[in-house]
């Protein structure tokens, strides 16, 4: 398939590499170079979410190609009056083009629109799911919590570790063990620590010891852990 990937950032570069590897004829261009479009079958917009509509409006209308985007929470309406439209969002972190390209192969994709989108996902050995517009926003929020918020949480771990002369590397094995436990035991059984046993004295001591700037995040996560522990308690009595 002849594919023009518009957007030279991490997502666009990852898609360009991954699609080439599975045999597509791919050209990666900056959104300012839309005037150089050849004869694509698919134009894939890997631009910031808020720029999708404006970039799509600069592409000539044609029945010959599909115009699609890779945004997680946006739908088909952002693509305006184009005759054939679609979207495919990978449930994968794309920190750089090399890693991203590897992860796109075999990924789960939220898809919609033209049937050609399904062909692209199949060529990447991926799995496609179709959600309503409302479901897609929740799906994308979930992806944000699972990836972006997890990284932010590790940033907090790094700050606290540094404050006592340790490093993030010292705590990464513990974090990995917790994730592994979630995968093998489930969320409820994997929960440990003071919130899981309602140990308010320890939590209060933590709050007294850590810097004030980190307390709101600690409290928010402790409250989430309390709720999870309560769900576990209720379930165990059913």
Q: Percent helix among the residues?
A: 40-55%
Q: Kindly, what is the distance between the CA atoms of the first and last residues, rounded to a whole number of angstroms?
A: 54 Å
- Strands of the widest sheet, in order across it, are 2-1-3-4-5-6-7
CATH class of the largest domain: Alpha Beta
The major beta sheet can be summarized as:
7 strands, mixed
Number of spatially distinct domains: 2
The total strand number stands at 7
Order of secondary-structure elements: EHEEHEEHEHEHHHHH
Any low-confidence stretches, pLDDT <50, length ≥5?
none
Description:
The protein is an alpha/beta fold and 238 residues long. It folds into two domains: 2-129, Rossmann fold, CATH 3.40.50; 133-236, N-(1-d-carboxylethyl)-l-norvaline Dehydrogenase, domain 2 (Orthogonal Bundle). It is 50% helix and 14% strand. The chain has nine helices and seven strands. Strands 2-1-3-4-5-6-7 form a seven-stranded mixed β-sheet. Strand 3 (42-45), helix 2 and strand 4 (66-69) form a beta-alpha-beta unit.
Key attributes of the depicted protein:
Rossmann fold; alpha/beta; N-(1-d-carboxylethyl)-l-norvaline Dehydrogenase, domain 2; seven-stranded mixed sheet; 2 domains; 238 residues; elongated; 7 strands
Give the topology.
Elements (H helix, E strand, L loop, with lengths): L1 E5 L3 H12 L3 E5 L12 E4 L6 H6 L8 E4 L15 E6 L6 H8 L3 E6 L1 H9 L3 E3 L3 H31 L4 H18 L1 H4 L9 H10 L5 H22 L2
Helix pairs in contact: 1-3, 5-6
Can you summarize this structure?
The protein is of the alpha/beta class and 238 residues long. The protein contains 9 helices and 7 strands. The radius of gyration is 22 Å and the shape is elongated.
